[in-house]
């Protein structure tokens, strides 16, 4: 891997096989598979994507729904493996990809703080030390012993963001989860991300808010139907993207 880059994405494509008919249960799926009655349609979510990110840079990934933004982030996090091409990541990653990821809805917020911390690789002792700080940032003091299944999407986003940013990760990946929060908390999260960037954290950020993208990110990658349309300074990319 080129030492100049913390993230290197070279000629990456991602293919999914989509079933051409609805199958409601496993038994029906197996029967159709054995009888060779189940057919798939190839769908290319990403095609020959290239992106090289240096340490401490902030990159937004913009594009319409279905452009491949979330798929690209999942590839970077190692959740998915590319169909072709290579991805190399140098550094620990704190991902905020989906609401509820790393949480158990049946458990309380208090229990989920330790669970999510373990998913991110933190020890129980470390989480005990940081517990009050996490609760204070998330502003969920009155709901600690409430099962997460009763939380609103905004409350889950608060908890996830508070845990993911309790330390200065080398790479922070945020995928649209902050959009569900109230305006006051979004500002709070933006401030935290600016602090992390000042401390050398690399940021990959997906948002449909062009204003947020311009405030947080120096650079941007524009995807459309899995293809790179434009890459460069966020001001320039957003200007072209907004023309649509």
Shape assignment? globular
Q: Strand sequence of the main sheet, in spatial order?
A: 5-6-7-3-8-9
Helicity level, as a percent range?
25-40%
Number of distinct helices: 8
**Quaternary form:** single chain
What Rg, in angstroms, do the CA atoms define?
A: 20 Å
Q: How far is it from the N-terminal to the C-terminal residue, by CA?
A: 36 Å
What characterizes the major β-sheet? Answer: 6 strands, mixed
The ordered string of helix (H) and strand (E) elements is EHEEHEEHHHEHEHEEH
Mean pLDDT over the residues = 87
Low-confidence stretches: none
- How many DSSP E strands? 9
Q: What share of the residues does DSSP label as strand, in percent?
A: 25-35%
| Structure class | alpha/beta
Word description of this protein:
With 244 residues, the protein is an alpha/beta fold. The chain has a domain at 98-168. It is 36% helix and 27% strand. The protein contains 8 helices and 9 strands. The protein has helices at 26-34, 69-77, 109-119, 124-138, 153-164, 183-198, 210-216, 234-242; strands at 7-19, 40-53, 58-62, 84-89, 93-96, 171-175, 202-206, 219-224, 227-233. A 6-stranded mixed β-sheet has the order 5-6-7-3-8-9, with helices on both faces. Helix 4 (124-138) crosses helix 5 (153-164). The longest helix has 16 residues, at 183-198. The radius of gyration is 20 Å and the shape is globular. The model has no long low-confidence stretch (mean pLDDT 87).
């Amino acid at each position: 891997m080129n030492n100049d880059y913390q993230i290197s994405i070279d000629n990456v494509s991602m293919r999914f096989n989509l079933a051409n008919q609805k199958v409601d249960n496993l038994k029906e799926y197996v029967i159709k598979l054995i009888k060779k009655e189940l057919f798939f349609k190839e769908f290319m979510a990403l095609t020959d994507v290239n992106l090289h990110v240096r340490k401490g840079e902030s990159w937004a990934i913009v594009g319409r729904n279905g452009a491949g933004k979330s798929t690209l982030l999942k590839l970077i996090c190692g959740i998915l493996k590319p169909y072709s091409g290579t991805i190399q990541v140098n550094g620990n990653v704190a991902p905020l990809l989906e609401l509820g990821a790393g949480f158990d809805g049946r458990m309380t917020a208090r229990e989920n703080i330790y669970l999510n911390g373990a998913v991110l690789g933190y020890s129980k002792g470390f989480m005990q030390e940081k517990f009050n700080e996490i609760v204070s940032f998330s502003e969920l003091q009155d709901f600690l012993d409430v099962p997460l299944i009763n939380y609103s999407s905004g409350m889950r986003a608060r908890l996830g963001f508070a845990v993911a940013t309790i330390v200065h990760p080398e790479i922070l990946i945020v995928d649209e989860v902050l959009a569900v929060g109230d305006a006051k908390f979004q500002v709070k999260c933006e401030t935290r991300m600016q602090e992390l960037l000042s401390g050398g954290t690399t940021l990959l950020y997906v948002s449909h808010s062009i204003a947020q993208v311009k405030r947080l990110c120096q650079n941007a990658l524009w995807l459309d139907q899995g293809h790179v349309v434009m890459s460069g300074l966020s001001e320039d990319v957003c200007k072209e993207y907004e023309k649509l």
